[in-house]
Amino acid sequence: MTAIAHPRPTPQRVRPFEKTRVKTPGWLKLILGRELAPTRAEYDRVVDALWDGDPAMDKMLDWMYASDPALARRQFKQAMEEGIERVENAPEALKTFFRTVETPPAWVDRQLLDEGMRFIHGTGLASTYVLRDLALMGGYLLSGFNQSLLMTGALNRGTAQRVAETGKWWMDCTTPGGLERFGEGFKTTLHVRLVHALVRRNLAARPDWDSAKWGLPVSQIDMVATYLGFSAVMLGGLRKLGLPVTPRESKAVMHLWSYACWLMGVEEKWLVFSERDAIVLLNHTFMTQSKPDDTSREMAIALANEPLERHFPSFQALRRRLYYHQHLSVSRFFLGPDKMAQLGLPENILPWYPWLTLLPRFATYSLRHWLPGQRAEQERRGRREQEDALASLFGDKTHGVIQPGANHPAHT
User: Fold this and answer.
1) Per the database record, which ranges form the ER-bound oxygenase mpaB/mpaB'/Rubber oxygenase catalytic domain (predicted)?
2) pTM confidence score
């Protein structure tokens, strides 16, 4: 890999190259087959991509704003829902975009996609704990990610709704057939991709967005780190919660999210198909992040309080308090006391829930997973748990993904 010949300015949020030279523990180097720290060429490549957005969608937005944004968005929605051929006199920019996303890369393996989805079903609530209490909560420690979220109000106001909308997208992507052309996962992914592009375009033009410090809003590297949270971070977290993961299951999950996030606008050059490569790349994205700050604490406290807004058919007050403490205990299990303190979370929390459930979860999961005739029931049961969890987040509101209001930077 060659270094970037003429790199763009380095945003202030980035850790200097000299501070990335942390020696990899011997056991981890043996697993990864290399040092975790980036080479100079890898460092330059990742840092430079903080200025890259989503070229295909950004180009389509140029057309959208050059014409009639409201009409163009309606045409986009019709093409997404019904197919580009149903859009009367479809503009060439719209045709080009949809021809691209409707042509899957040659590497897509439908059987692996299905296996990844079914594995996720079987994990039940364990996967939701990892994604919420490790990937999302831990992600707030990396304050470079937080700026776009904070300026959209996405996760510090109406947190339950925002988490529910992300959960809806995740459920759509992990439903059998969800990533087929007219599956819900395919369509909601394109919808979210458009929202991201609108946020990127409009925040970058605002005087209060500090490009010299943060780079481009919703950059390729920010999207890459998010995508790896749904794949590599989830797999590692599941193992720590007591769920064994086979090499084939790991491969299927990595494949699933590589395709889903290709649809989301992650460029193919950043896609990885093994956990080992994902761990290395994830670490390289971390070096582009600032230390925890006030945004980290604001976001983390809002997420910690989210269970107090959930809706349950019975014993609502009791269950809200229970889930509040339960989720905090899971975050404490994954993040440790120092990172909890950096996030402004209670420091007297013990990881009681993971401790109490680790062995029972391992035994129950393993028996259902490997005993003849039990795996299908495990997948059905796990999916029902995930559906019930999503319902508790939405309450009586419509289950959907983000619909930007008038004050949101993605509103047209």
Assistant:
1) 135-349
2) 0.93
What is the DSSP-derived secondary structure letter of residue 11? P
129-177 residue pLDDT tens: 999 999 999 999 987 778 887 787 655 557 888 888 999 999 999 999 9
Angle of helix 159-173 relative to helix 294-305, nearest 10 degrees, comes to 80
Domain ranges of the chain: 54-103, 107-292+356-394
CA-CA distance, 279 to 232, in Å (whole number)? 7
| Cα 212 to Cα 191: distance, rounded to the nearest angstrom | 29
- What span, in angstroms and rounded, lies between the C-alpha atoms of 164 and 160? 6
Q: How many other CB atoms sit within 10 Å of the CB of residue 375?
A: 16
Tokens standing for residue 361: 């979860």
Under a CB-based contact definition with an 8 Å cutoff, are residues 15 and 46 in contact? no
